[in-house]
Amino acid sequence: MHLHKKLIEKFLPFIGFIVLFGAIGSLNHDFLAPMNILNLLRQVSINALIAFGMTFVILTGGIDLSVGAILALSSALMAGIMLHGCDPIVAIIIASLIGALFGAMNGVLVTKGRIAPFIATLATMTIYRGLTMVYTDGNPITGLSDSFWFQVFGRGYLFGLPIPAITVIITFVIAAIILNKTPFGRHIYAIGGNEKASIISGVKVNKIKIMVYAINGLLAALAGSIVVSRLNSAQPTAGTSYELDAIAAVVLGGTSLTGGHGKILGTLIGALIIGTLNNGLNILGVSSFYQLIVKGVVILIAVFIDRRKATS
Amino acid sequence: MKIQLNNIHKKFASNVVLSGVNFELLDGEIHALMGENGAGKSTLMNILTGMFPADDGNITIDGTAMRFDNLQQAEAYGITFIRQELNVWQNLTVLENLFLGKEIRNRIGLLDKAYMKKLATAKFAEIGIELELDKQVSNCSIGEQQMIEIVKSLMTNAKVLIMDEPTSALTEREANVLFRVMQRLKQNGVAMVYISHRMEEIFAHCDRISVMRDGVSVSTSPIAATSFNQVVREMVGRELSERFPARDVHIGDEILQVEGLTGDKFKNISFSLNRGEIIGFAGLMGAGRSEIMRAIFGLDPIISGAVKINSQQLRINSPEDAIKNGLGFITENRRDEGVILGFSIRDNIAINNTHNYVRSGLIDSQAENKFILKLTDKLLIKMASVNLDVGSLSGGNQQKVVIAKWLGNKPQILIMDEPTRGIDVNAKREIYQLMNELTQNGVAIIMVSSELPEVIGMSDRVVVIHEGTVAGILTRENLTQEKIISLATGEVNAFT
Fold first, then answer.
1. Lowest mean pLDDT among A196-205, B31-40, B231-240, B481-490
2. Co-location of B456 and B391 in the same domain
3. Å from B337 to nearest chain A CA?
4. In this predicted model, which residue has the larger pLDDT, A208 or B237?
5. Residues of chain A with pLDDT > 70: what percent?
6. Contact predicate B277/B261, CB 8 Å
7. What is the rounded distance in angstroms from the CA atom of residue A288 to the CA atom of residue A20?
8. To the nearest whole percent, how much of chain A has pLDDT over 90?
9. Is position A6 within any domain?
C-alpha cells in the first residue's frame, strides 16, 4: 500500500499529462490528428529547451528570470551576424555561446556579487531586453537566409519528427546524463540540498553555479535560434515571459523550488502539459483570456499536490 | 499532576519505534529519560505533547485519559517540550521572543511593553536569572537562548517541562545555571523530563531515572537505587567495559605546524601536530576554537600567521585547497554543515568522493555502490540500504555518514569538531575506536570538544583556548579536569 502510494506520487506529473491528453482528445478528435501532434511537439520544443536549463538553475536553489531576454538578445545578434554574411550554422553556434556568456554573467552576479538570484536576474532581464532594443532599434531583423540547413533547423522534419523536437530529445538525453551520471550533476543537487555542507565538502560551489547559469543561457539561445529559423527573422520582443512558462514547466514536473530535488524527465512532462494545455484549449475553442486562467489554476493544483506530498 | 503513559506503540511506515512503553512522571520531580539514540525517547515525548498520535496505548493525567492533537493543546495544559534545536527567533529581542504569539496589548490595542517587561522581570527573579530584555537573541549565548525557551514556557504557567539534551551545547558554567534553575522550578512544583547522554549530570541532579532500549521500557528506579554502570548496562544491553577504548600510541613525524595564526575571533595561535597523534582543543563555548579550525580549513580568512603541512607553508584559501593538502573537517553542526537531509546515504557520502569511481567522465554506479558499502561497513552504519534518506538515521549514524564521507578522501589530518555531540554511548565508543584506528594508520587528529571526560580520555595533548588565545598546552602526564577548567576560564596562566 505504502509502496503503491510512493509509486503514484513519483509518476504524478506523467499521470496528470496522460489524463489531460486523453480528456482533450476525447472532447475533440482533431487534437489527436497526427498533424496536430507534430505541431504540438514543435510548439513545446522552445519551452522544453528553456525549462531544461531552468531545471539546472532551480536544482541549485536559484532562479533565472532573464532567459526570455537572453533568447531575444542572442537571436538579434545571430540575425545581425547572418546579415553580415555569417554562415547560419556558425551563427547558431556563436549565438549559443553568446547566450552562455550572458547566462554566466548572471552566475557571476549571484556568486561573486552575492546578489539573490531573483534580483540579479530581474535586473539582467531588463538590461538584456534593453540591449536588444538598442541593437535592433526596436525593429525586427528580417530577410536572413535561404540556406537549407538554416531553414531545416526550425522548420524541417527527420524520420517524421520536427527537427526542434529532435533537438529537444538530444538535449534531454545529454541533460539527464549530466545530472545523473557526472560529478558535476551530483554537485548541482548537493548545492541545492545544503550549500554550506557542499562548501565544506570541497564542492566548487561558485564555479558550478556560474556553469549552471551559463547552461541556462546557452539553452535559451538555442531555443532562440529555433525561433529565428521558424520566423526567418529576429523579433526584439521575442521570448517575452518565456521564463514564466519555463518555471511553470519545472514546477509542474515536481522539482522543488528550494533546490536539491527534481528530475529532468519531470520537466519534460511539465513542458508537455503546458504545451497540451495551450494547443488543446485552442482546438477546443477556449478564448485565450480563459486559457491564461486555466494555466494558472493547473500550476496551483500541481504545487498544492506537491506540498501535500512534502508534508505527508 | 501525575502523568502516565501506558503501553505506547508507534510505527513509522514499517519501522517499529515504540512497542509497549510505560512512563510515569510525578509532581515536582526531575525524571531522567535515558537510552541510546534511536531507543525512542524523543518519539515518546512527541506523542505525549501531541506532535503525532500513538498507534496504541493511552495517556492519563491524574487518572483521566487525555489526548493532545497538537503542541498547542499540550502547551495549554502546561506541558512544554524544549527541543535540542532551540525554537527561538534570532532576529527578535529577548522580550519579543518571550511573548511571541501571546503579546499583551493595552487599551488601544498597541503592545504594552512596560507591562510585559514587568512580567518577564518577575519571572526572571523567581527562577534566579538575569537577562537583558532588549538584547537581540542572535547576540545571546546558547545557554541564554535556552533560558528564553524555559522562561517562555513558564510565562504560560508550564507544569511539565521536557528537555531534550539541554546541556549538549552548553559550557560547564552555563550548565550549572541551568541546574540551579531546574532546582528552583522543582521547588515550585514543576515536573521535568530530562533527556541526556551525560551520566554525571543525571546522577547529580535527577530524582528518578527511566531507561529505554529499542522501543521498550527497561527500568524505572530512584537515582539512589541504581548506578552508572547499571544504567549503561541497561541502555546497551551489555557491559560497557570502558568508555574510552585503549590505544597503542605511536607518535610519528610532525605533520602540521600552525604559527601565530590570527583571525577575526582569535590571535596568535601556535601549535604543532604529529602523525598518529590526537590533539584535543578545550575551552568555553565562544572561546574561538571552531573559528580557528574554520580558518585552518580555508573557510574563514586569516589575517596573519602561517599554516605549514610537512614543513611546507601553504596558502589555503578554500576547502578545496585544504582537501587537496590532505585535510578533512567534520564540523560541529551536523545538520547544517554535515549531512544533506532529504538526500540518500549514498549521495551524502558521494559528495566529495566521486573522483574515486568516475570512468571517462561518468559515474560508474557499480563501483560507486561498492565504494560506499565499503565505507558504511567500516563505520558500522546501521541501515537497511544506502538509498535511505540520511535524515531517517539516528544522530550517531548520521555522524558516521559524515565521517565516512571524509574517510573516502583518505585525509592525513582530520579535524573533528564536537565529534560525539548528542550521540549515544555505543556510537560514541565506535567513533573513539575509529579515531584510534585512524591514528594507528598515521592520521593526525584535531578534536575540538566541550566534554572534558572525552578530551581527557582521548587526547595525547590538549590545547586550551581562552578568549581566542592559547591559554596553555597540556601533555598527557599533567592532564586533569581542574587544570583544563582553570586555563579555560582564564584563572591561571600556564606559562607563569
1. B231-240
2. yes
3. 4
4. A208
5. 96
6. no
7. 18
8. 71
9. no
- Give the C-alpha separation, A104 to A97, whole Å: 10
The beta-strand segments (E) located in B106-253 are 160-164, 191-195, 208-213, 216-222
Boundary (domain end) residue, out of B175, B203, B236: B236
Per the structure, the complete domain to which residue B310 belongs is given by 254-488
Tell me: pLDDT of B495 over 50: no
Q: Do B363 and A182 touch (CB under 8 A)?
A: yes
The answer to whether B179 touches B186, Cβ cutoff 8 Å, is no
Q: Domain for residue A17, yes or no?
A: no
Any chain A CB within 8 A of the CB of B363?
A: yes
CB contact under 8 A, B343 and A199: no
Residue B226, burial from CB neighbour count under 10 angstroms (0-12, 13-18, 19+): middle
pLDDT, tens digit (0-9, with 9 covering 90-100), for B326-376: 999 999 888 889 999 999 999 999 998 998 999 999 999 999 999 999 999
Does residue A260 belong to any structural domain of this protein? Answer: yes
Q: Is B336 in contact with A196 (Cβ distance < 8 A)?
A: yes
**pLDDT tens digits, A274-286:** 999 999 999 998 8
Q: Is the pLDDT of residue B203 over 70?
A: yes
Distance from CA of A189 to the nearest CA of B (A): 9
Q: What is the pLDDT of residue A63?
A: 96
Helix (H) or strand (E) holding A99: helix A88-111
Query: Considering the domain boundaries, does residue B248 fall inside one?
Result: no
pLDDT of A110-165, one tens digit each?
A: 999 999 999 999 999 999 999 999 999 999 999 887 788 888 888 888 888 899 99
Residue A261 forms contact with B (CB below 8 Å): yes
CB contact under 8 Å between A190 and B347, yes or no, is yes
pLDDT at position B231 is 87
C-alpha closest to that of A70 among A199, A216, A180: A216
Domain co-membership, B271 together with B216: no
Cβ of B343 and A2 within 8 Å?
no
**Chosen from A201, A207, A311 to mutate, greatest number of chain B CBs within 10 A:** A201
Report the domain count for chain A: 1
Of A182, A187, A197, the CB nearest to B339: A197
Minimum distance, in Å, between the CA of residue A173 and any CA atom of chain B? 14
Its domain, for residue A55, covers 28-311
Q: Is A4 on the interface with B (CB under 8 A)?
A: no
Residue type at A108?
V
First to last CA, chain B: 56
Instruction: Let me know whether B184 and B276 are in one domain.
Output: no
Name the grid cell of B176.
550549572
Taking CB atoms and an 8 Å cutoff, what residues of chain A touch B331? 200
Average pLDDT along chain B: 89
The better pLDDT of the pair B402, B168 is held by B402
Distance from CA of A180 to the nearest CA of B (A): 8
Residue B249 within a domain: no
Q: With an 8 Å Cβ cutoff, is B336 touching chain A?
A: yes
Residue A312 pLDDT exceeds 50:
no
Same domain, yes or no: B182 and B297: no
B204 and B296 in a common domain: no
Cα B189 from Cα B192, distance rounded (Å): 10
